[in-house]
Specification:
Helix content is 69%, strand content 0%.
Length: 77
């Protein structure tokens, strides 16, 4: 079985790239914003089971947390 931390470490760069593209910010800004979010706290908690979700799903959670809705046109640029 793959460790949850290993799974997260492979998915987080994808999340950061999606957030960077969505908000038109640097990867560093996206990383900082993500790690300061409630979504990141929940993603890091093995009890939530979020480690098994896709980068797109976690990105969507973050956007909903911050914006309340997702602009799908921006998400798929």
């Amino acid at each position: 079985m793959i460790e949850h931390a290993l799974v997260r470490s492979t998915v987080i760069p994808e999340i950061i790239k999606l957030l960077s593209n969505y908000y038109q910010i640097s990867d560093l800004d996206a990383l900082q914003r993500f790690y300061e979010s409630k979504t990141a706290v929940n993603y890091a908690d093995d009890q939530t089971g979020l480690y098994g979700q896709s980068a797109l799903y976690i990105t969507g959670m973050y956007i909903m947390e911050k914006d309340g809705q997702i602009n799908t046109a921006r998400l798929h640029k």
